[in-house]
Every structure is written in structure tokens, then in C-alpha cells.
Design goal:
Helices cover about 5% and strands about 40% of the residues. It has helices at about 20-25, 80-85, and strands at about 5, 45-50, 100-110, 125-130, 135-140, 140-150, 155-165, 175-180, 185-190, 200, 200-210, 220-235, 240-245, 245-250, 265, 275-280, 285-290, 300, 305-310, 315-320, 325-335. The structure holds calcium ion (CA) (2 copies).
Length: about 325
């Protein structure tokens, strides 16, 4: 462990580096009263601090004393400035960001509008990001994640996350948020502020990006971004056991051939048993079904009926190719 007698302003979890994840630790201790430090400053140096304070968020995580970044004696929103100022700086030994995982809690963070497949170069796109399905998240307090971009196709300088705070801030307490581009990644953290979790789920915001103008010759599907290192925490910084992380695939095929035939139907959607009925598909060249992680699924297609094998609850994408067209259906299994 790092020497716990010094506060490095912005490294709220004292793991040796200032990054977006520190915002979650700060959000969880907002409003706490400590003792004013001798030196009130966010300069990057180890500061002596009063450590006779309530130990931690729980017995495993570091003392909340590290959250008073500026030494004012009070843990407040202003302390987040130190994360901005000292972002990326390191001290002592680098340790993993750590949360206490809650067994059995699973969710997913993904791009729900994967229908937006046919993208033109040089245009700006705003692509939704969702956290779970609506009302699937219990005890939400904060979220951190990163998105890795394929910079062959995305102008990294154009990337920006816009928060949509509807369900995360239903009680209108306001949210702390942080974002930073570093290399080919965007790092984002969001935290509630009143030390009370909420329930919800669904869209959390949009990623804006510009597609590079060198992609018009392509004739294939390309992953342009993928989410990684997602953590969902409650007000005690207990985290989900696992958060499945989606990617966004763009098909640069000529949009003329991307129209779903008018008479095509797939139902019921959602399906409760992995079985879907299909109308309006007299012949086809291929059908590929993937989950939101892009993993191919086995299925049986027989007499206008598709049965996905070994399915679980979630969103799937079915790519249908016929002589005339190619398109993608979003299908959902919910039981
Ligand atoms: Ca840190
Ligand atoms: Ca402070």
C-alpha cells in the first residue's frame, strides 16, 4: 500500500494516479467535514492531513481524508477541480482502482442504436450510450467507463460525451461529471451528489464523433469504438460484479443496398423463449445473429421460424443479407 499519511490532491483513492475513477470516490464522500489542512492547495505534492477521521467508505477502501483534495476541511464539489488539474499525474506505487464487487449483480453498457450503420465520412454523429435496460439498475450512485476509439476511422479530437441526466438525476440534485481524452480513449465518470442511490437504467448520454474522410472506399464492417473498464457503484462504493461492455460497428457498405424490405416482419420482439417468427423473407444469402458483444450465436432457421440456441436475456442483432438488400434487426429476448 501507499504511504497513507499524505494526500496527493486529486488522487482520491490514493492508488498512485489521478484519473476519472477518483470522481466516484469523491462523489461518495461529498459533504463530509474534516479538519482544515495546514496548507490549502491543489499543488501536486504530498500534503500532511488529519487522519483521525471516519476510516473509509467501508473497511477496505481508503480513508475519505484523501477526498479533501484542496485541504479546506470539507469535502465538496470544488475538490473535483484537483482531478482536472492533476489528471494523469502519479506518485508512489500504482495500484488498481478497487471496488467491493457485489456477487450476482450484472449489467451492461452498450450502444443501443446500432441500426445507425451507414455512416458518411466527415459527418458528425451522436450515438446513444445505455446502461442496462430501463429500470434494471438498483442502487445507482456512480458510473465510470472508458471508450477506446479506432482512430483510423474516428477523429479523436472530435469526440465528446454529453450527459443525459434524466434517470440518474430524477430528484434533480445535480451530478458530478468528468471526461478526458487520453490517447485514443475517452474516460468518463459520473456521480450523484447526495450520498443516496437511485434506481433506473437506460440512456445515460451520447458520444459525438466525426468519421474521418478517408473511409469512403471501404466495403466492410468495422468496429469504431468499444467500451471498457465500466464500473457501476452504489453510495457505499459497492460495485456490480460484472458489466458487459458493448462496441459500435459501422458498416461502410453502399447505403442503397441497406433497405429492409417493406413486407419483412419479425415477431414477437421481445421474445420470451428465443423463438422468432419471420414473414417476408422468401430467400436469403446469409443470416448472422450476434449478441451485443459481437459474439455469433447459434440458431436454427426452419419454416420462417428462428430459434436461438443457448440464449439468455438481452439484446441481439440479426444481420440479414439477400440478393437485393442487407440490413440489421435488433431483437430482444426477455423472459
Ligand atoms: Ca486515483
Ligand atoms: Ca475541500
Amino acid at each position: 500500500m501507499n504511504p497513507d499519511s499524505l494526500v496527493w490532491p486529486g488522487d482520491v483513492n490514493n492508488n498512485g494516479i489521478v484519473n476519472h475513477t477518483d470522481l466516484l470516490y469523491l462523489g461518495a464522500s461529498l459533504g463530509s467535514q474534516l479538519v482544515e489542512r495546514d496548507s490549502i492547495s491543489t499543488n501536486w505534492e504530498g500534503m500532511g492531513a488529519p487522519f483521525n477521521v471516519p476510516a473509509a467508505f467501508n473497511n477496505v477502501l481508503p480513508s475519505i481524508a484523501f477526498a479533501d483534495c484542496d485541504g479546506s476541511g470539507f469535502i465538496e464539489e470544488l475538490d473535483a477541480d484537483a482531478i482536472e488539474i492533476n489528471y494523469g499525474l502519479t506518485h508512489d506505487n500504482l495500484l488498481q482502482d478497487e471496488f467491493i464487487k457485489t456477487p450476482g449483480l450484472f449489467s451492461e453498457i452498450y450502444f443501443p442504436t446500432s441500426e445507425t450503420l451507414f455512416i458518411e465520412a466527415s459527418n458528425t454523429y451522436e450515438i446513444d450510450i445505455s446502461l442496462g435496460a430501463e429500470n434494471s439498475i438498483d442502487e445507482f450512485y456512480g458510473l465510470s467507463f472508458s471508450i477506446e476509439f479506432n482512430t483510423d476511422f474516428v477523429d479523436i479530437n472530435s469526440v465528446f460525451f454529453t450527459l443525459e441526466n434524466d434517470w440518474m438525476d430524477l430528484d434533480q440534485q445535480g451530478l458530478l461529471q468528468f471526461q478526458r481524452i487520453n490517447g485514443n480513449r475517452l474516460h468518463v465518470a459520473i456521480s450523484r451528489k447526495n450520498r443516496m442511490s437511485t434506481n433506473g437504467g437506460g440512456v445515460i448520454g451520447t458520444v459525438s464523433l466525426i468519421i474521418e474522410d478517408n473511409v469512403t472506399e471501404l466495403n466492410s464492417a468495422v468496429e469504431i469504438m468499444g467500451i471498457e473498464n465500466a464500473e457501476i457503484v452504489n453510495q457505499n462504493l459497492n460495485s456490480y460484479q460484472e458489466v458487459y461492455e458493448g462496441n459500435f460497428i459501422v458498416d461502410f457498405i453502399n447505403p442503397i443496398h441497406t433497405v429492409r424490405p417493406d413486407n419483412f416482419k419479425i415477431y414477437p420482439n421481445p421474445s420470451s423463449n428465443g423463438q422468432f417468427l419471420i414473414e417476408g423473407l422468401d430467400s436469403y444469402e446469409s443470416i448472422v445473429i450476434t449478441d451485443i458483444m459481437g459474439r455469433k450465436q447459434n440458431f436454427i432457421f426452419d419454416k420462417n421460424q428462428i430459434q436461438i440456441e443457448n440464449f439468455s436475456n438481452g439484446i441481439y442483432f440479426m444481420e440479414v443479407t439477400t440478393k437485393e438488400s442487407k440490413w440489421i434487426e435488433k431483437i430482444v429476448i426477455q423472459y
